[in-house]
């Protein structure tokens, strides 16, 4: 469903390609495709490689509007789909640990406590929320 929605938006944007500037085209793609592919990154972290490939295909299709895919992904500062998901989760975790998010996000994290006595005690570490653990098992 996500891939279908993104490709419909890309098809609609492609119809505007000859009428708008490249900067405006980039703005349309960033406003319509990127938020859809970023939505629920915590759930995307549990996706299989083939499902991640679908997300990467969306991103590559959006980049093809401009030029060669690899070069334009670097120019647009778009990470590959798997790394983008990890980055978004890590950014949200960092903000939650430093009080920069809503209280319910910070409350979903638990401080790390080692299970054995000889393990390192790193108080700054946090465990993933239980929902993500459930999805991965």
Structure description:
The chain has 137 residues and is mainly α. The chain has one domain. The protein is built from 9 helices and 2 strands; from the N terminus they run ααααααααββα. A two-stranded antiparallel sheet has the order 1-2. α1 packs antiparallel against α2, α1 packs parallel to α5 and α5 packs across α6. The longest helix is centred in the middle third of the chain and has 17 residues. The C terminus is likely disordered.
Strand content: under 5%
Outline:
elongated
Query: Could you tell me the mean pLDDT?
Result: 76
State the end-to-end CA separation.
24 Å
Assembly status: single chain
**Cross-sheet strand order for the largest sheet:** 1-2
- Could you give a short account of the major beta sheet? 2 strands, antiparallel
Give the beta-strand count.
2
Structural class: mainly alpha
Using the CA coordinates, give the radius of gyration.
19 Å
User: Spans with pLDDT under 50 lasting ≥5 residues?
Assistant: 130-137
Distinct helical segment count:
9
Q: Helix content range of the residues, please?
A: 55-70%
